Amino acid sequence: MSERTLVLVKPDGVERGLVGEVISRIERKGLKLVALELKNVDRQLAEQHYAEHDGKPFFESLIEFITGGPVVAACVEGSNAIAAFRQLAGGTHPVEKAAPGSIRGDFGLEVQFNLVHGSDSPESAARELKLWFPDLGA
Ligand code: CMP
Asked: In what residue span(s) does the Nucleoside diphosphate kinase-like domain sit (predicted)?
């Protein structure tokens, strides 16, 4: 079944020039870009996006990091898009969880600087896409 997911190339990925690499992997997998935007993230959007992590020890540094430079936000569509992108991204920790061959496994070292974000469920995808792409519709 076709579904949509939110993908972010985080400030570390943009800074390191990995936007093309990430988009290329998305396209080669067979997923489609529905929307794509380079965006500076304000504190309000960052806190809403990461609301589930509010109160965790790394919350403040996560908010500072994601607001510290532009991100590339994409709405990505296709069959099983949510799981498909999470497979492309690899596990949250680039060394301890992400396998070589995944984006994080190939390019990352530290959990905070893990290059990309992908929605983790249909509910998260709907919530996050509404936040990042309010004009896109359902
Ligand atoms: P993401 O998939 O965007 O979802 C939450 C983010 O929090 C995660 O990727 C990491 O960038 C970050 N994160 C998770 N655990 C930690 C941690 N222990 N220390 C710092 N950042 C973390």
From this structure: 2-137
Taking the CB of residue 64, how many other CB atoms lie within 10 A of it? Answer: 12
Nearest-CA residue for atom 20 of ligand 1: 112
Catalytic residue flag (residue 117): yes
Q: Which helix (H) or strand (E) holds 8?
A: strand 2-9
The answer to whether the CB of 124 is under 6 A from ligand 1 is: no
pTM flag (> 0.95): yes
Q: pLDDT per residue over 73-110, tens digit each?
A: 999 999 999 999 999 999 999 999 999 999 999 999 99
Q: Convert the pLDDT of each residue in 47-81 to its tens digit.
A: 999 999 999 999 999 999 999 999 999 999 999 99
- Beta-carbon contacts of 133 under 8 Å, excluding residues fewer than 6 positions away, are 6, 35, 37, 73, 75
Ligand 1 centroid–CA 136 distance in Å is 27
